[in-house]
Amino acid sequence: MGVLLEDRINKLKRRVDRMKENDTFFYLKTVENTSESRVLIDQKEKIMFASYNYLGLINHPKLKEAAIKAIEKYGVGTSGVRLLSGTTKVHEELEAKIAEFKGAEDAITYTSGYVTNLAAITSLYQRGDLVVIDKIDHASIIDGCILSGARYKTFLHNDMKSLEGILANSEEFVNKIVIVDGVYSMEGDVANLPEISRLAKKYNTKVMVDEAHSIGVLGKTGHGIEEYFGLKNTVDINMGTLSKTIPSVGGYIAGNKDMIDYLRHNSRPFIFSAPLPPVTAAVAKAALEVIEDEPERIENLHKNMKKFREGINSIGYNTGGSITAIVPLIIGNEKDTLNLCKMVNDEGIFICPILFPAIPKGTNRLRAHVLTNHTSQDIDKALDIFKKAGEKLGLI
Fold first, then answer.
1. Which among 252, 277, 287 has a CA at the least distance from the CA of 82?
2. DSSP-derived secondary structure for 8-61
3. Distance CA 66, CA 57 (A)
4. 79 pLDDT more than 90
5. pLDDT tens digits for 60-70?
6. How many CA atoms lie within 13 A of 101 on its CB side?
7. Residue 6 forms part of a structural domain
8. Where do the Aminotransferase class I/classII large domain residues begin and end (predicted)?
């Protein structure tokens, strides 16, 4: 028996209204000075711990200059889809830069990271194929699997025995692929790429990695998960976003030239959607160049990640298996999670709660994002606020 649409809408409305009445609705806030480590929200300065601006590139002069030049040359949009009249020189330059950055033969861009995963999975895999995904892969990967019509199976998070159990019984499938997040967005841990690659070779399976949260974060120079593990050519399909560390909009797939050409002529989101505006493509290309030209940004991010993670662990919070710029403070109970969020926000930290059903029931959390432009004083103050709030609420 189905549930009336109006009832579903009203159920969510009641939950949101209840949070607003309790002053625990932390979403859809208007944020000023988004490029800084301290921002203004509701006319109050807060230390930003809810941003994807890991390398602090949003306000970088080179990116702003690239945007201005692109607008002056191309205006504010394109005249059609990429396949017809919507391809400009800057689109080609961006895709060439992405391919170079990822050590691939070619690349293709889409209008969002979400659409990119849908496009790749639905275009390359179909009924009769097998897609194997981590249980906590991003929603866009799951939706891509469902829309593709392929058989898809999930393995326990980062559990290589679980993965091998699936692959060992997959002889009937001609086309097989394992898809994982490089950095898991709710956990802050990293996919076990060396073992995934070994199993993929053993069972004649391709590998796709979503690097939304790993570009600019993983690896000594921020080139991502292969650099982090000291591997080369282990990923068949490199996916990433242009809207997190790279502060623009869109997503990309990088890989061998024949596959990319196939996507250009066969993926519906590419064929039937307007492309990235040239200005956003120019900004994304400039961001990739800055990542390579200014390695000190990655070095400082790694230093800040270590300082915050070790500090928050020493206080007594459960951060799971996080080793990256995403550091979850796993509380469990929704009420406790919201109370902690309210208390630290009141004291000067902007952070958002992640609640069921975005994550499994009973694992509600605050998700902290460490930035390269956090100062040592920012981190020390944040740790002090988290410590006092956690002790007052009896959580640590």
1. 277
2. HHHHHHHHHHHHHHTT---SS--EESTTSSEEEETTEEEEE-S---TT--TT-H
3. 13
4. no
5. 999 999 999 99
6. 33
7. no
8. 45-384
User: What beta strand segments (E) does the chain contain?
Assistant: 31-32, 38-41, 44-48, 106-110, 130-134, 151-155, 176-181, 206-210, 237-241, 251-255, 326-332, 349-350, 352-354, 364-369
Pairwise CA distance, residues 304 & 307, whole Å: 5
- What's the confidence (pLDDT) of residue 36? 84
- CA–CA distance from 356 to each of 5, 279, 286, 337, 360 (Å)? 20, 37, 37, 11, 6
Indicate if 281 and 341 belong to the same structural domain: no
Shared domain check, 159 and 40: no
End-to-end CA distance of the chain: 44
Is residue 180 within 8 A of residue 195, CB to CB? The reply is no
What range does the domain containing 308 cover? 15-48+295-392
How many Cβ atoms are within 10 Å of 37's Cβ, its own excluded?
21
The CA angle 335-340-342, to the nearest 5 degrees, is 95
Rounded to whole angstroms, the Cα distance separating 203 from 167 reads 6
Residues with Cβ within 8 Å of residue 33, at least 6 apart in sequence: 39, 40
> Same domain for 92 and 235?
yes
| Helices (H) then strands (E): counts for the chain | 14, 14
Same domain, 280 and 153: yes
The predicted model scores a pTM of 0.95
Order the strands of the 31-32 sheet from edge to edge: 31-32, 38-41, 44-48, 349-350
Residues identified as active-site:
185, 213, 244
Is-contact 321 189, C-beta < 8 A? yes
- Per the listing, tokens 């194997």 go with 132
